[in-house]
Amino acid sequence: MRLKKARFFNRSFAKHALLGLSIVLLASCRLVITTDEKGYIISASGLSDCSQASCVINITEPLSETFTAVPADGFRFVSWEGVCTRAPTNVCKVTVSPLPEKHIEHDGNVSLSAVFEPSSVRRTWYRDGDGDSYGAADRAKLAFEQPEGFVINKTDCDDNNDSVHPWIKEREDGLDNNCNGSIDEGFVDILFYIDRDGDGYGDAEESRLERRRPAGYARNNLDCNDLSAEDNPDADEVIDNRDNDCDGSIDEGVNSYYRDVDGDGFGVLDGAIESLEPVDGYVQNYDDCDDNNVNIFPGANEQFDSVDNDCDGSIDEGFAEREYYRDADGDGFGDSLDAVQAVIIPNGYVVNSTDNCVDISNPTQSDADSDGIGDACDPFTDSDGDGVQDSVDNCPGTYNPSQADSDGDNLGDVCDPVDDSGGGSGSCSTTTEEQSMLNALNAFRAQARVCGSRGSFPAVPAVSWSCQLEAAALTHSMDMANNNFFSHTGSDGSSAGDRATRVGYVWSAWGENIAAGIPLSSVSAVMQGWIGSPGHCANLMGSNFTNIGAAKFSNPSSTYNLYWTQVFGRPR
């Protein structure tokens, strides 16, 4: 289809309502007019009016027509779209012709439509001082209605000359008549450069002055090889020893790639290639010293294997003989008297020689009496250094070589402030912790309680502290800690009643609670543990008990470290 340049007229038409909707589809070359509810398009001949959504005019012969865009009530014309895009007003004349037969495959649709907007919109209007229907961008006014002497567009470049505006024919008059930014284009001699290879870039060495571009010439002189269309500023650089993209550099971006047979990320110099792009199996370094071994490359860990594993030129660097110590019991500590010299640590050996019990595993290396022999294999442990083994010491935490026990309660005088030889309940003053234990117990007994499977218990009277029962409790806590067991039966087979009798407590009833472990070291923690256990809870609420004594003892080398004993009694 061939289009002739449109001419424009400025005429006013009455506004009409949109009539209806229809769609007409025709084959071959067609003028397609589209409208909407905002306005419609009429023709001067009346043969090409369109008040529907789409009107199709089959172009079988040249058509010259003047179209007018008519806004609906409440709207105004803004601009054209399609073949009348250049028209500044709502009137446009168009000539459309079908293409010659030999170009019929290029036929298609030519569109025409108008843009309308609500007339209630406040918009910017531009001064049209010369009346050419084109406004000046620097002379604007905001208004709802179109002011006199103002238009919608702002494309005039000289609003004082009606012969200067967009789309007018340029003249040789020293002015930019068509407002395209150039003066007298087509009339002023321009330097053109020969383009022998037809790539759109000219040769700076050969040029000519013309008003219009001659065939075989270009406006620019950017070609660096006008004998090859493959060499120009838009070309991609390739490896051919030429400056393909005319940037002054030859084969820039080319990298050397080196074969990496073992895939460790390091290549060798032999077999190198050049490429603009990465190549599979190649890398950009040749730092490998053995390209057939993936474990040998710069940065690898050196091994003691007579090979340069890290490619630094040295073999087995960093490896030297040193002394290693046998760890026969596997506790991580070695025997200072059993050592070997080696580069690599042998199995069953360690680097330290500090085992204090070489034949028995002692991973904590505990040594309660600090005699250099670990508790795990030390048959004689004397924590206070008084020459008496802890298991029989009547005061293992305090130096007491005489083992004096004036009241015969098995608690040495140096750590026994109470004389329990008088019999009975053994009433005495209590420490802060002992008083806390007594208060907690009596507070619990003061209310009715449910002790799980042992049933319900009514509130019972308070109990008093007995130093004799305290001594019995301490004896058993020491026995469990020093002989590393946890049971109501003592290491000598004694019961809680036996232990109470030994300290002089003449009983008619007794009971005992025990506990072990660092988490239960406080009175509140151990009491909560006993309260939560039905059997222990039943002892706490026992109505036949009137006295209590309790004590804890700690031995770091034992399984639980800390042991509690709570003894209840009722004197006869």
Strand content: 15-25%
Return residue spans where pLDDT drops below 50 for at least 5 consecutive residues: 1-27, 423-427
User: Biggest sheet: strands side by side, in what order?
Assistant: 1-7-5-3
Percentage of residues in helical conformation: under 10%
The tally of strands reads 26
Radius of gyration: 55 Å
Mean pLDDT: 86
Q: How many alpha or pi helices?
A: 5
User: From the helix content, strand content and strand pairing, which structural class follows?
Assistant: mainly beta
Q: What distance separates the N and C termini?
A: 130 Å
Which word captures the global form? elongated
| Largest sheet geometry | 4 strands, antiparallel
Topology:
Layout: E1 2-8, E2 30-34, E3 39-43, E4 54-58, E5 63-71, E6 75-82, E7 91-97, E8 109-118, E9 123-127, E10 140-143, E11 150-151, E12 190-194, E13 207-210, E14 217-218, E15 255-259, E16 273-275, E17 282-283, E18 322-326, E19 339-342, E20 349-350, H1 432-445, E21 449-450, E22 456-457, E23 464-465, H2 467-483, H3 496-502, E24 507-516, H4 523-531, H5 534-540, E25 547-554, E26 562-571
Parallel strand pairs: 2-8, 23-25
Antiparallel strand pairs: 1-7, 2-4, 3-5, 5-7, 6-8, 9-10, 9-11, 12-13, 12-14, 15-16, 15-17, 18-19, 18-20, 21-22, 24-26, 25-26
